[in-house]
């Protein structure tokens, strides 16, 4: 199956699941009055909109134009960067609004108590949906050797959404067993706000890593995935080093497209001949294309 077909299948599935989760979140918020559930629903709806954009990017990224003679893979990196920033933005807004709610309660402002009856049902449903979505995106990405930045972003989003839903559901349901008149009665009013604040701090690392890696791709930096780097270098060494050709290499990634520059010795090339180099280059490209179908291999004489 082609890279784009695998990716688009996963993205359409993700769009449908995210829309279902958004409506479930809004409905659960209506009955529970839990701000954390509203955050969950809004997060899912934004993910739905962004996934529709990702589907369009997946359809056009391989098309070559005068402006993009090697394809439009830069949109993949731009999407991953944007989604990482979006996740950071949603988490930041959640942290700010819920810390504000905690201070309002401390200052004596009257807040509505949570209705936890529906929360456990909501949590179980959301965890199942998020787990299914995350595993499906990861499975589809595995088919194409984890080369899709878009599916990586979808997996990160589903994982964060699932973790939030699980923690929120269990914690908010547990609040229902706390006496509202007791020492911990405040949890009925700000328990969800406290939990959201903790979750934001625990889940913030992954979107920052996604943003960092996407920025490096857009800036033309070296490949950040150490496993892929070692695999590509092993292929290069296997074919070029046996002829004492390779002196150094540069590997970068933009979306699912890889640019590999091989620096070879001009003196060795003169002794070996151009035809031999062409044969080796063909063998290297064939070996790389098994795992990285969108690869550009450049030979640079030194």
TrEMBL record:
The chain crosses the membrane at residues 12-31, 43-60, 81-99, 119-139, 160-180, 186-204. Residues 11-218 form the Cation efflux protein transmembrane domain. It is a multi-pass membrane protein. Gene3D superfamilies: Cation efflux protein transmembrane domain (1.20.1510.10). GO terms for biological process: iron ion transport; zinc ion transport. Coiled coil: none annotated. It holds the Pfam family Cation_efflux. Keywords: Membrane, Transmembrane, Transmembrane helix, Transport. One of its GO terms (cellular component) is membrane. It is found in: Membrane. This is Cation transporter. It comes from Litorilituus sediminis. The lineage of its organism: Bacteria, Pseudomonadati, Pseudomonadota, Gammaproteobacteria, Alteromonadales.
